[in-house]
Amino acid sequence: MSESIRKREHDPLIVGRIRFLAWFSLAVFVLLVGRVYWLQVAQYDKYQTLSENNRLRIRTIRAPRGLILDRKGRPIAETQASFDLICSPVDVNDLAGELRLLDEIVSFDPEELDVIAEKIRAAKKSSPFSSINVMRDLTYEQVSVVEYNREALPGFSILIEAKRSYPYGEAFAHVLGYVGEVSDTDLEKSADGSLELGDIIGKYGLEQLADNVLRGVNGGRRVEVDAAGRDRRLVDEVPPQTGGTLYTTLDIDIQKAAFEAIGDRAGAVIAMSPKTGDVYAFVSAPGFDPNVFSRGIRKAEWQALATDTRNPMQNKGLQGTYAPGSTVKPFIAMAALESGIQGPKESAVCNGSYRLGNRTFRCWKPKGHGSIDMYRAITQSCDVYFYQLGRKLGPGPVAKVERGAGLGTITGIDLPREKKGLVPDEEWKMTARKEKWFDYESVLLGIGQGLIHVTPLEMLEGYATLGSGGRVMRPRVVTKTVRMDGGVSEHRPEKLRDLGWKAENAEFIRHALWGVVNDFGTAGIAKMPDIAVGGKTGTAQVVQMKGERVKTDDLPYNLRDHAWFVAIAPVDDPQIAVVAMLEHGGHGGSAAAPIVKAVLQEFFRQSPPGAPDNAAAAGKTAPSGKPPVKR
Amino acid sequence: MHGTRGKMSRLDWPLFLIALLLCGIGLINVYSGTRIYNTPGLPLFARQLVWIGMGIFVFFLFYLSGDGFVEQIANLFFYFILACLALVLLAGSARMGAQRWIAIGGFNFQPSEFAKIALVLVFSRFFADRYGYAGIGFVEMLPAVGIALVPFALVALQPDLGTAGIFLIILAGMMVVAGVRLRVLLSLTALAALAVPALWFVMKDYQKQRVLTFLDPERDPLGAGYHVIQSQIAVGSGGFLGKGYLHGTQGSLRFLPEQHTDFAFAVFAEEWGFLGAIVLLALFGLLVYRGFHLAARSQDRFASFVCGGMTVYFLAHIAINLAMVCGLFPVVGIPLPFVSYGGSSMMTNMMALGIIANVARTRYTFQGQGGSETVGG
Lengths: 631, 377
Fold this sequence. Notes:
heterodimer; A: alpha+beta; 7-stranded mixed sheet; 23 helices; elongated; B: mainly alpha; 14 helices; 2% strand; globular
């Protein structure tokens, strides 16, 4: 190759060719700019929408809730796998046909079938790629039949989810509560935005109270969906975190004993330690099966619960208030002793009735008790003695002792929605009713009738205070929470106040309570061979009957008296206090006492007297009274 | 001749700076497109930084090489690359399926990338040697087709039709630059038009799919059409101002295939919008313009042809890649110069740029200096 030919001045041909290519490039760039303009400016809205719909879809994996354990570490609320029937609307070919087939397998409620069908039809238009929970908690048989018919049910599939389960069902219903799907209001209230639609949260009881401990953190599968909205592949998966653990003071065996003892009657049974406030058992009947709520309660089931006149959704121990009847008598006696208004040896004469002005107040024993001192008046539950004592004391001293011991006050138990009873006095009556106090009200106060009404829990708190000699402990259900992140918070027994009762007064009352059970009193039925049980019966009138008292069994159910029995044992150093209250249950002695006895038997079967107390944390023991004085 | 300092003073800075700007844009874009990946070892953007560094080194390696060096090695380089392509093919057939690179100490060396450069150099020499005042005739031109067919065949067998197609575009571009007679060009164009249907029968099924899908992406929105639809959504949803850096959803949610390599522009356009896209296109436009400018300015035919050919190479990559991302062209594996992630393409582009700068320096005589430079013996 010769340089002379190769090297030359600008060759017009080559320069022309290059110029052509340059123009050609310009055209290419103009075309590209035009295309980009078209996509980004002209068609922006279209692609913007497409990209909005084009996100990864997050499939939530529900986190299992944490365990709730009894005092011995046995689970009373746990998690089980449940099988839910879900529908992917886009894949449904023949909705009516598929639902018909499903109906044969799982048998929907007729009215629900229409709701589901409508839901799916709507979703098919609005969000075809969503998944709709059609039915929760299928049985194994149903699951296998659905799987067997897969071909015929293209739009439906089985989803395995972690579901809250309660191994003891109704026995713990009112204390554990139940869980359910978040409602719109829950979502609005969720300040931190930790809740999302479809989440399961505690709605009642401990589940509600400790929801932030028990609730785990949902995991998720990120599924890549494409322009057509179908799942393409699993991008990644974040496993859910199980919620924290709740340690409680409850005892499965004692709870079961209480639950079985109350049977199908309505009322409440609660047991707790006077020393620590630990609640061993907390039963309200009738209850409900919390597992039904975990599964997703059906309309009909909810209707049945909501319209039941015996109110199974109410925790009667915490929220029901009742006239205490004779169960207040030990407090009246204590008020007399503490105020020095009447000593234990001062007797009254009972001839079956007590007159005030032109009104007559009857004793339950028409013949009367004759001359009777304070001890006998308690063991025999003489009404006349306490009529006169109530009138003598007046509302002030009575209210002081009763409120101090916990009656008519919020006990502060760690369960949600506690209600307060009422212990009336002059001041209350003036503000609430704009009326002054009448003497007859003092008379009625003596036997726990009239304006006074208390919750069974308050009554139990009162007796625990009698048992501990005036130390009021806050009832405690939760001893410890261990959060997901390992954070532990201990809930120690808490002394609310000390009433400063004289030891001999407290001992006298305890002795009288022992007499009620063991010394020919009204509750001999609760006597136990090797445990000194002390307690008090109560029969609270629902209606004031004119004239003669009618036998409660002859009345219609909703007019019958409420039956109370409250006990402490052993009386010289009470380890346990138990209350049983039966709505319209008749006489405390005959109806409620056996229930308390069953609970006591279970408690002392586990920890016989003399054995070290198994309470998680014993507070300072009360000054031990001398063994009950035999008369 | 000239010392390094003298050479540096004669570097065509606009060309080099445009390339560096593009690298910078590419780097931040790679970061955005790949931060969701958990790659073992260095993250991809850090690796890209290494590639850029190495690329700059390669650029200067070629830029600073002596006068005439490029021309001397042209043929040798070409044969070497052909050998590599053959080797890749053999290794690939042993490994069932597509094999495009040779691993050299952790670096995946893709000879087909470098083959593009080698072709430009070989054609430049070939046409420079055959150049006549009346242009180049059909018979004189014919061997060039043969030269192109060897790498074309080797790469098409890989199979990598995209790269093989680039070879043909380079051949066509070089024919235009080198003054092959217009009549010949037009006839060849007609012939090519007739050959397209024939091509259909040699294409593999998936390649046919790609073409069909390109013609109608919606016919297979989950398969072959997926990429096309997704990348258009990415670009389109960027709007005028973009979603903001690191705020693109299409890319970060992994809807985009190859979002850091072939679809880098989709990530960029989504985040920077039409304005950003215009800036990027303008930079590419300037790069191409500068390349042609240097080609036209060179007083030496070889240099003109090299600059023209390399610029055609850049233009082909830019145009095809952007057209593909915007849904104007079937999906082919062609990266966007300087912007897409990748070692081989970065090296190739920097090498091409270095060669342009080199020949523009050594084969260029300043106006008014008169005289000429000869290759020093």
